[in-house]
From TrEMBL:
GO terms (BP aspect): maintenance of CRISPR repeat elements
Matches recorded under Pfam families: Cas_Cas5d
Full protein name: Uncharacterized protein
Amino acid sequence: MIERSGRRDVFLGTRECHGDVSPCIFGEGAAAYDNIDEFALGYMFHGFTYADEAVREAECGHMSVRFHNVVMRKGIIEFPEPDEIPDKDRRILHKMAIKPFGEELDNFTGLKEFTDEEVGL
């Protein structure tokens, strides 16, 4: 999909943080941050947990937000999985009902929009 340009904004913590994405082979050639052992980028937004994605009992039926301390090591940023974010870095925002999704409800396309493009439909 990168070859044809993405459909979604590259989101790096804020909309004002532009991301320039182009195809490459990882590890091929030198990169700007390869020789920097550790570069702290600070405490950043990790993501939202919606009511239907909650894995912690306290977050069930709520929308919550996750944050984490981002560190780049040798040019690589590793992002923890949502369930790996500790409780101290999570906040419940408000109650939220679970919204049903499905093609039959005409509010979900899944990967169809990409599959059709790949096979030329």
